[in-house]
Amino acid sequence: MRSSDEMMQLILSVAKRDERVRAVYMNGSRTNPNVRPDSLQDYDIVYVVSDIDSFRKDKEWIRVFGELIMVQQPEENDLSIGIDLDVTESYAYLMLFEDGNRVDLRLITVAKMLEQYGNDTLTIPLLDKDLQFREIPLASDESYWVKEPSEAEYVSCCNNFLWCIQNVAKGLCRAELSYAKQMYEVIVRADLHQMIDWWVGSQHSYRVSTGMFGKHYNKLLPIAHWEQYKKTYASANLEASWDALFTACQLFKALAQDVAAIHQFSFLEEEHQKMLMYLNELNEK
What we know:
Beta Polymerase, domain 2, Four Helix Bundle (Hemerythrin (Met), subunit A), elongated
């Protein structure tokens, strides 16, 4: 695998040689001082270019970065299925190379750069041929900090969690595995993650990021909560799925009560108890 120094040198040398590329900056985990570097990190690179169309027309130009396993062009995929997109200002190449390196390269116009540069606090300037970058603070993950909830947001999360767990239970009762799993993993888990995020945020004065899909939970949750969280995952076994569902309910309640106490919100105690009674009745049938 090419080293990070080799990859950065390549990314910048390509930009320097090509007059269409006017500036380069980087986003993502490689700019985050709170993330421990490893070889699996993507290179989230932005090329500020004078013209995007000339790059799109040349199907082979990206091979300058190395031998590809696969490339995805999200906007091209959308266009191919009839989604109407403007690709004159922004266009991406997601590239995985045979040596294991991955580069997520986005091309944007100068006008687009002037509009959005620095909005993402995980931004590091790498090259500015025309000295158009404005001064921005040192990179931090502030853009991704957990946002403090309003009481309405908190109540809505609790209500949706409690409502949707009965859909999971019905699916399990009917042995409709795909329905139960989809409802649990997509809908219910999203609310569980939201409550975990708020709980973690409240412990850090809302100056913390939990990472995409809560990938930093193992570092941010107390051991007891983390061990309980792991048990919210289950196999295709129906009994194990029931156990995971009840564990998710227990964890959600514990965290939701803490968040409510910290923010002086009202926890939906009566609704929670009634829904658990209903789930137990279904489980015992």
